[in-house]
TrEMBL record:
<keyword id="KW-0328">Glycosyltransferase</keyword>
<dbReference type="GO" id="GO:0032580">
    <property type="term" value="C:Golgi cisterna membrane"/>
</dbReference>
<keyword id="KW-0325">Glycoprotein</keyword>
<dbReference type="GO" id="GO:0008107">
    <property type="term" value="F:galactoside 2-alpha-L-fucosyltransferase activity"/>
</dbReference>
<keyword id="KW-1133">Transmembrane helix</keyword>
<keyword id="KW-0333">Golgi apparatus</keyword>
<keyword id="KW-0472">Membrane</keyword>
<comment type="similarity">
    <text>Belongs to the glycosyltransferase 11 family.</text>
</comment>
<keyword id="KW-0808">Transferase</keyword>
<feature type="transmembrane region" description="Helical">
    <location>
        <begin position="9"/>
        <end position="28"/>
    </location>
</feature>
<dbReference type="GO" id="GO:0005975">
    <property type="term" value="P:carbohydrate metabolic process"/>
</dbReference>
<keyword id="KW-0735">Signal-anchor</keyword>
<comment type="pathway">
    <text>Protein modification; protein glycosylation.</text>
</comment>
<dbReference type="InterPro" id="IPR002516">
    <property type="entry name" value="Glyco_trans_11"/>
</dbReference>
<keyword id="KW-0812">Transmembrane</keyword>
<protein>
    <recommendedName>
        <fullName>L-Fucosyltransferase</fullName>
        <ecNumber>2.4.1.-</ecNumber>
    </recommendedName>
</protein>
<dbReference type="Pfam" id="PF01531">
    <property type="entry name" value="Glyco_transf_11"/>
</dbReference>
Length: 326
């Protein structure tokens, strides 16, 4: 009799649990659409914590204070390419030193996220090659260090990089104005082809052993460009850091040495040309890349046993479609 009483009590208890649980279950299922995970944690997730607990993508930034305009463009483009390849959110802090890329281009990933200097740092081993150290980043928010100067870092997102490096109207309109003025000197400008030429000579920020492209390189490159576009009105627009040298060495009728101007204006003119001749340096490299046309480069750079040659890999720095000349 005692056994039956106990069983009856157990059944009654279970029934009571079901009755009281159903309303609670119905309440939570009816209100689940309004339920939210807690807000994502702010950037700065510590390494070793695994996947970010807030459910957001991990952040990736870069120290963008290395060098001048061309170097900063490599830093920005490579950052985006590395981030896209690993599903991270890329951004750069506001430009406070040197050229402000955001004032030149319509950049969409300039943000401030506090003190990123405390984030985990990953540094390249050499500047002009595809460094494997960036292929498997730690599972935390990371700040990259280096020049990251290889087209291979962002070859997966070339269309996005071209959109990011869309010139602001004050520079693009200036470039259009200069080219229009030059084109009006031709009786038939329908077949006009503009070839940008960047002449980089050693300056106060160059190493004493930095190799300069000689006049013979430009003469050779002019001839090749004319041959590639035979029958067209090929016109060379020359810009560089030594206008006097350019005037003394280029006297062909189809060569125009541009007036001195801001580097950003010269860049806008060169990058808007149809094709490009590159001597040395990242400024001319990027102008050539953005033209999307034939690009000729000085193949003797960098000279052996110079600091630029350390770790330099030609096939990582120069795209395979570009034409090497000396």
């Amino acid at each position: 009799m005692a056994v039956l009483t106990s069983r009856r009590a157990l059944v009654l208890a279970m029934a009571w649990m079901v009755v009281t649980s159903v309303p609670s279950f119905l309440y939570w299922t009816s209100n689940c659409a309004a339920w939210r995970w807690p807000a994502s944690e702010p950037p700065g997730t510590a390494c070793g914590s695994g996947a970010d607990p807030g459910g957001r993508a991990l952040y990736l930034t870069i120290d963008h204070e290395y060098g001048r305009m061309g170097n900063k463009m490599f830093e920005y483009a490579s950052l985006l390419g590395i981030a896209r390849g690993q599903g991270r959110h890329p951004f750069v802090g506001r430009y406070r030193n040197g050229v402000d890329l955001a004032a030149v281009f319509h950049l969409t990933h300039v943000e401030d996220h506090g003190n990123v200097d405390k984030w985990s740092k990953v540094t390249e081993k050499n500047y002009a090659h595809l460094d494997q150290v960036f292929q498997n980043l730690p599972r935390c928010d990371v700040k990259l260090h280096g020049y990251v100067q290889s087209w291979k870092y962002f070859d997966n997102i070339t269309d996005e990089i071209r959109r990011e490096f869309t010139l602001r109207s004050n520079f693009s309109s200036r470039a259009d104005s200069v080219k229009k003025e030059i084109s009006q000197t031709f009786s038939n400008n329908s077949d006009l082809v503009f070839v940008g030429v960047h002449v980089r000579t050693r300056d106060g920020k160059s190493h004493s052993k930095t190799l300069e492209a000689p006049k013979s390189f430009y003469t050779h490159a002019f001839g090749v460009m004319r041959a590639l576009h035979v029958g067209r009105n090929v016109t060379f627009l020359v810009a560089g850091n030594n206008r006097t040298w350019c005037q003394e060495n280029f006297d062909e009728p189809d060569v125009v040495v541009l007036d001195d101007d801001k580097p950003e204006v010269h860049f806008a003119i060169l990058a808007s040309c149809d094709h490009m001749i590159v001597s040395i340096g990242t400024f001319g490299w990027w102008a050539g890349w953005l033209t999307g046309g034939n690009v000729i480069f000085y193949k003797r750079f960098p000279a052996p046993e110079t600091y630029e040659a350390k770790g330099f890999v030609y096939q990582d720095y120069y795209p395979p479609s570009w034409i090497p000349l000396d």
